[in-house]
Structures are given as structure tokens and as C-alpha cells.
Amino acid sequence: MGILRFTRGFNAITTTKTRIKALSYPFLSRPFSESKLFNADDTVLPVLIVGAGPVGLVLSILLTKLGVKCSVLEKKVTFSEHPQAHFINNRSMEIFRKLDGLAEEIEKCQPPVDLWRKFIYCTSLSGSILGSVDHMQPQDFEKIISPVSVAHFSQHKLTRLLFKRLKDLNFDLQPSEALESLSCGSLRGREILMGHECVSFAATDHCITATVSFLKDGKIIERNIRCSMLIGADGAGSTIRKIAGINMRGEKELQRLVSVHFFSRDLGQYLLNNRPGMLFFIFNTEAIGVVVAHDLEQGEFVLQMPFYPPQQNLEDFTPAICKKLIVRLVGQELSDLDVIDIKPWVMHAEVSEKFVSHDDRIFLVGDAAHRFPPAGGFGMNTGIQDAHNLAWKIAAFVKGIAQSSLLETYETERRPIAIFNTSLSVQNFKAAMSVPAALGLDPTIANSVHRVINNVVGSVLPSGLQKAILDGIFTIGRAQLSESVLNEKSLLGSSRLARLRHIFEEGKSLQLQFPAEDLGFRYLDGALVPDNDGAVDDNLGLPTGRRRDYVPSADPGSRLPHMYVRALSNSSSEEVISTLDIVSGEKVEFLLIIAPGEESYRLARSTFKLAKEFKACLKVCVLWGDGTVTGTERDSKAALAPWDNYVDAVEIPRASSSSSPSWWTVHKMTHKGAILVRPDQHIAWRVKKFGVVGDPVSEMKRVFSAVLGIKSINM
Predict the structure, then answer these.
(1) What are the sequence ranges of the domains in the chain?
(2) Which are the contacts of 136, defined by CB distance < 8 A and separation ≥ 6?
(3) Is the separation of the CB atoms in 212 and 197 below 8 Å?
(4) What band does 39 get if pLDDT is binned at 50, 70 and 90?
(5) How far apart are CA 175 and CA 323, in angstroms?
(6) pLDDT given at position 681
(7) Buried b (16+ CB within 10 A) or exposed e, 257-291
(8) Cβ atoms of residues 310 and 336 within 8 Å
(9) pLDDT in tens, 242-280
(10) Which residues, other chains included, contact 109 with Cβ-Cβ below 8 Å and sequence gap of 6+?
(11) pTM score over 0.85
């Protein structure tokens, strides 16, 4: 129950005034039949997405593939080239496998894993190494827990690939004045409008009217766009969240930093040949910073440095000054050093009080809904999984399969995960801070000193003197890193280095991978049916900040575990696929997994019938044990007739030995059990051991009603 316990601290909802114009939102509750309004007026766009970052683009792809018209607004005129997020975890890569080979293209384009598997701690990039941590373990390459591995691929490169996918889906990239020609404020769908900012919205019982501004010939022009749903994918400072009056809860301003994007092929080649890695933590008497190696081959880097305003301001980080700082951190001159961009940013740990508002028509996804420390790479990945959760629910509602209450389960399911990942990111950030603390540079002391200067002497001393005091204190602190102090012959230095080694050996430093949380997160409530026994096994508990192994689970709410199977057909060819591949990414389709047997076939026939009544698509996977099926024994066609949307699949043992446990045994089930999987690959319902008790038609009616949020249906 760890997630639920931790959630309590975020649950209190308060109301504060927003500086943006407040509007009324007279939405009415939508009965099931009224989802037809999406097709009633062609001038009303079903879904308008605000924000063309990875989360907004992934959502637009998923919705389009599911047959939902949508368009995207982006206030920037061009896509950013400043590298930001760069670690893609297993679950996001699994989602990308459904986006027309995106995962495979990322794997092909990313640097070889040996160039980024380590975090390196050093006195300079060419100086002494204090320690290194290898974040890849043998099982990470075996693809036992997932059909795809994690990736190191920068966000701006990912954005290009996502846009390429959208172009293949006939999306148009529109210029900044595209709305000029829209007199009636209608979009046909499949547009990305650059340079367009949503500045307000108003709602009626028929649609949302979003007011969008853009620049034309030096003048700001406004136009209205009418849509049925508005998605805020517009980042940490989300305008949609502010207009909707939704507050954030958590801890603000954990740290202020400056991000410096720079290129140096010479540095890239040096690190390739001497100490390849992903992150370099550098501590010396002249400078302290973290260098992220986005691409060693191309020599593309980002330097992250602490930033302490108002004593420091952005003018203190000019390209010339940043070059000097980079040289101090590298430890030698770089003839080809080129500083591209310098940006300040603030690290928060906050979760939005609401993810869904205004009668299930306004949604927040990604950083608009949650802001994490970057430690562990959960920000972008959690947002991508938000989009995956939301897309099929919107499609089910738009197509008349589900009631609007299904949309509410987006918040029910995703908000606890965001809260958990916030805590996990904070734990990991604190682990990162343990390294400088071990070296005598406790960041909490630096932050406390900064607060004292701001709150106590800031109103008394002139700004120049404040800056001199701050610089002096930091200079004294960095003196702890001198060779005269930090060496094995010094009693203090030897003690600090021993403590540092202990942190690395015990896995208490900053971690990159979290398999248990990445693949093992589970929805405890929402569009699912809990087990009849009422037991809730929250296998993750409270976040620890330490790497833990993923344990496959078929509990309702869990992601469908991966296992390789041979998909059989009437032809001689047999394709090896993952169980995750059996779930369609092209339509709102549920998957029922059963073992061969008359009782299970009867359940499948009943489920086919119920799915049709609910206007939902269903596929059945008949999962045969290894060595239990031959061409003459396979009788699923006759057993499932007249239904034909099924696949026979044969387990491929996880180990070469004949004692490898079956699919059902791994998940603590028997061959009489069954699993119903949602379109987002999460388990909606299961029966564990003895089959369905009673009438399978009545049971599956109960299941589909609960999952789709339908209170009643005429049978």
C-alpha cells in the first residue's frame, strides 16, 4: 500500500486565484449516447493538444492511429535543439515499438551502450577519477523482462523522429500565421501549428473554444478554435493548467541550475578513447558541474551548474564565461569548443492536484501534470506513459464504446504513479547529493547559506557585497577538493575517499535504472476489476531510490508481462513475438489470454459475445504450453467458432532446461485461469485458478461494465 500511503500527503485540494482570466465552465454530464456529439459538427475538432514536446507528439500519434482526429498547437516557432531529457526507459521503449518501428530506429541511431553505461566521478574530465558506476547488468541485455532495452537518445532527436511519424500519418506542419485563414475557427485535424499559443479557453455544453494567439507582421492576432477536448501537454509552466485554476502540490525550487549546450569533437574523441560515459560529475577547486554526454561521436554535451540568484544572474554566464568554466572542468584547453545555448531552469518536485477537470474535457499530461527532479529520467518517461494511458480512453469515448467516467480513470490511475515517481526522483536526487557531501561539499549547507543571505542580509547589504560573500563562501568550500586535502595520506582525505567508495559499492549514489518501478508499477483503482479475494499486494511499497529487480505479475492493473511466444498460423511459418505484440496499437481492442480447454473456450465465446454487445473489439490468444501442440491437436478454430479474431501461440521457455516454469506458473495461475488485457497493455481482469464461477456471460458483462464505466446495457 506504499503508493496509497504516500499519496495522502498530496491529496488535500486547495483553491487559489489565478492571474489569468477566470471563465465559467457549464459542462453537463454526458450520458453514454451523447459521445456521438463528436461526429455531429465537423467544425468542432475532437481533440486539441497544446504543446509539441515528446508527450504531446506521442499522444497525437496514438490518437491518430486509434482513429481520433486531433491537432497540435506549439507556441514556439521551431522545435528546440537544446538537449534535455535523454534516457528512455523500458516501458517507454515498449510503447515506441507500437509507433511504426520507432523503438527499433532509436536503437539503431543511439550511441553503442558501452559509450554511455557509466557515470564517472572525477576531479576533471582529464584528471583523476574518484569513482565510476556501471548502470548496466547482464540481465539488461537478455530481454527477458522486456522485448526492448533502455536507450540513451536526446529529446530533440526524439522529437524529429516523432515528427517524421506524424508526417507519415499525413500531419502538416503549419507556419505561424496558419490560423489567419480560419474564419470559423475550425481545424480539420492532423495539423501542427507552430508559433500558436493558447491564451484562454471558454466552455459550453457543446464544445470548448480555445483562444489562440500568433504573430503576423509584428502584430499579435487572435483566433478561436473549437474542440471537444483540450489537452495540456505544454510543459512545467503549463498555461492550460493555470487557466484551468489547477494548483501544484509538493516541493518547489529544490535547486536552480544553468544548462549550457556546447559542442567539442575533440572532447568527444578524448572521452571515447579514455573514459566513455553518460554523466560526468566533476569536482575541483575552480569549478563544480555535471557534464551530460549526449553524443560522444558528435561531441555534443550539456553542462549543468548550480545557479544562485539574485546574487548571480544569467549575465554571469555569458558564452565567454561558460567557455572558461568548461575548460576548468575539462582540465585542458579545447580548440573547437562552441557554446550553442545557455538556459536557466528550476528543479521542482510537484504533482498537479487534478489531471482531469471541467467535466472530463480538460486533461493534463507530462510536465504539465507533474514536475520531477531529472534524477532517474522519470519526467519524460512518465509523461509518455500518461499519453499511452489517456489515448485509448479518449478513443473509446469518442467511438461510443465507453462513458465519460472512463476518462476520469486517467487521473485515478496516473496521479498516484506521478506521486510515487516524484518521491522516487527526490530520493535519487538526494543520493546524487551524497557524493559531494562525502567530499566535504554538502549541498544543503550551500543552499542554507544562500537562503540566509537572501532572507537576512539581503535587505541590508548591497548586491555586489552579497555576491562577494557568496563567492567567498563557495571558494572556501571548493578548497576541500584540493589535492592537499583530498588524498589517501591525509587522515581527513582518506576518510572521505573511503566514504565515497562505500557509497558506490552499496549502490547509494545516483541511479539510472529502476526496473521494478519502470515495468512493475500497478494501477490499484480505475478501469479494472480487482481480484475477487480482495487482497491488494502493492509490490513496490515506498520508493527507496535504490535499483530493484522487476518481478512479473498478472495482478489487475499491472502491465502485461513479456514472454516470447511462437504465433501459429495455418501456413508453415511461425513468427516469434512478444506477448505485448499481441495487443493491437491500431484500434481499441481488448485481449483475452486463455489456455486451451473447453471451459476456457466457453469463456472466450461468451467474451466475444459481450464485447460485441459493448461495441468493443476483442482478440483471443490461446496460449499453449511448450511441446503441447501439433498441427492436428490445435482445434481453436472449431472451439471458438463462429468467432475468428484469435491467435494460437506456443510458449517459448525462458530457460533452455525442460524445467522452465510455464506462463501460468510464473504468474501464480493455473491453466484454467484467464487474463483480460486493456488496449494499453495493462491487465483489466483475471481469474487465477479455477475458472469463472457461475455464468461466464454474467461475469464478463460485469467486467466490461466496470472497465468501460458503463452502468447498464440492454442485453
Answers:
(1) 2-111+148-249+352-413, 564-708
(2) 113, 117, 513
(3) yes
(4) very low
(5) 35
(6) 98
(7) bbbbbbbbbbbbebbeeeebbbbbbbbbbebbbbb
(8) no
(9) 999 999 999 998 889 999 999 999 999 999 999 999 999
(10) 153, 157, 161
(11) yes
Rounded to 5 degrees, what are φ and ψ at 421? -70, -30
* CB-based contacts of 616, cutoff 8 Å, min separation 6: 396, 401, 588, 589, 590, 704, 708
Q: Produce one character per residue of 501-537: b if its CB has 16 or more CB atoms within 10 Å, e if not.
A: eebbeeebbbbbbbbbbbbbbbbbebbbbbeeeeeee
All 3 cell numbers of residue 569?
498460423
DSSP letter assigned to residue 444: H
Within 439-513, residue ranges assigned H as helices are 443-452, 463-478, 491-505
d(CA 172, CA 560): 35
How many CB atoms neighbour CB 343 within 10 A?
Answer: 15
Is it true that the peptide bond before 642 is cis, omega within 30 degrees of 0?
Answer: yes
Q: How far apart are CA 365 and CA 399, in angstroms?
A: 22
Contact 260, 339 (CB under 8 A): yes
SS3 of residue 212 by DSSP: strand
Closest CA to 312 of 342, 274, 355, 282: 342
Find all residues with CB under 8 Å of 200, minimum gap 6, and list them: 20, 21, 23, 210, 211, 243
**Distance between CA 274 and CA 403 in Å, rounded?**
59
Judge whether residue 667 has pLDDT over 70: yes
Residue 448 burial (CB < 10 Å; 0-12/13-18/19+)?
exposed
Omega cis (within 30) before 462: no
C-alpha pair distances (Å), 93 with each of 182, 287, 365, 517: 38, 36, 18, 15
Contact 227, 207 (CB under 8 A): yes
Q: Which residue has the higher pLDDT, 471 or 162?
A: 162
Rg over CA atoms, the chain = 27
Region for residue 187 given its phi and psi (left: phi exceeds 0; alpha: psi -120 to 50; beta: otherwise): beta
Q: How many residues does the chain have?
A: 715
> 12 — phi, psi (to 5°)?
-65, 125
Dist. CA 392–CA 369, nearest whole Å? 19
Residue type, 380: M
Q: What are phi and psi of 285, to 5 degrees?
A: -70, -15
Instruction: Report residue 649 as a C-alpha cell.
Output: 501461440
What is each CA distance from 65 to 68, 321, 422, in whole angstroms? 7, 48, 30
Angle between helices 405-438 and 443-452 (to 10 degrees): 100
Render 534-560 in DSSP notation, one character per residue.
-----TT-S--SS--------STTBBP
Angle between helices 102-109 and 155-168 (to 10 degrees): 140
- Tens-digit pLDDT profile for residues 331-383: 999 999 999 999 999 999 999 999 999 999 999 999 999 999 988 889 999 99
Cell of 332: 585542458
Model confidence at 552, pLDDT cuts 50, 70, 90, reads: very high
Top-level class of domain 2-111+148-249+352-413: alpha beta
Cβ–Cβ under 8 Å, residues 290 and 385: no
Q: Domain 564-708 has what CATH class? A: alpha beta
- Which one, of 196, 271, 262, 204, lies nearest residue 234 by Cα? 196
